[in-house]
Description:
By secondary structure, the chain is of the alpha+beta class. The chain contains 14 helices and nine strands. Strands 1, 2, 3, 4, 5, 6, 7, 8 and 9 form a nine-stranded antiparallel beta sheet that branches. It is globular and about 60 Å long. The mean pLDDT is 90.
Amino acid sequence: MLVLDTNDLRVGDRIAAFEAVAAGEGGVSAVQEETEEGVWKRLELWHLGPLTLFHTQGTGVRISRSLRQARRDAMDTVAINIHRQGAGGFTWADHRQRIGPNSATMHHMPAGYEYWWSGLGSTLALMFDTERLSLPEDTIRASIPTLEHSPVGRLLINHVLGVHRIADQVSMGPEADALASATVELVRAWVVSVAGDDLTRRAVARETLLTRVLAYARAHLREPDLTPQRIAWAHNTSVRTLYRLCDDGGVSLEKWIIRRRLEGARADLAAPGHAHRTIDTIARSWGFTNPAFFSRRFRQTYGTTPSQWRRLSPQDRLLSPPDDL
């Protein structure tokens, strides 16, 4: 949902408008623009159950939350930033870090922070109450300087990017709470992978295994060799244990993978930017090596063939049944 686009405002009102929104929605206490010439900011926001997702784009800026501000309010939340564009930096307590595209950082709001980028930049940010992590505060804070080295970070980044792509569809739907819970589980795994004690690490690994399996599968959907054997190996478990885990979670792994691949292919077939590509090429790019199998499963799932779907007008596609998420 679009909250602000400063291009819709008078030049003299743009900086103040962004400062007001940043303070009200994100608990920011100060905004310093890189330049007062040509300032542009666009901010979108979605509520997914207990989780808030922000997408901020614009010209260079330095955003901060001071210790004084942190002590003055009762905002006990964590925020995860997925930096998408531009070079910048992040400061939390005594930790300083350079950031670039597709890097992830986290800060605990009661300690304040500073986040900046130069030139055109963009970031996705998640925010939720700290208590939802069900982890000691010391563990959360100890993880922040070393999170960039966690192997779980890439899974979390891909997951958040996927959430952003479907945010308009799911923010008002019944699946919002479940999606938020899966996101928090991934953040828990991310934190304890670098800061939890052995007992906590093992417990969280068990609790979040299905979430991590599905996040891994989603991140590698386009690869034809995404098999249960490969997924099990990547998570240091057996194929039998993997299937039992999925069964207990009510998930058919093969069906889940096929459905997510079909959703991706369906979106590409409808996108003007992919109009020059053949149906077989699009199918292969989503891991379907057998064109006949792809066409059959597409028709079974959506009630139309890939070529018929491609010929539909945008208005007719809107009348088609939505994807299961």
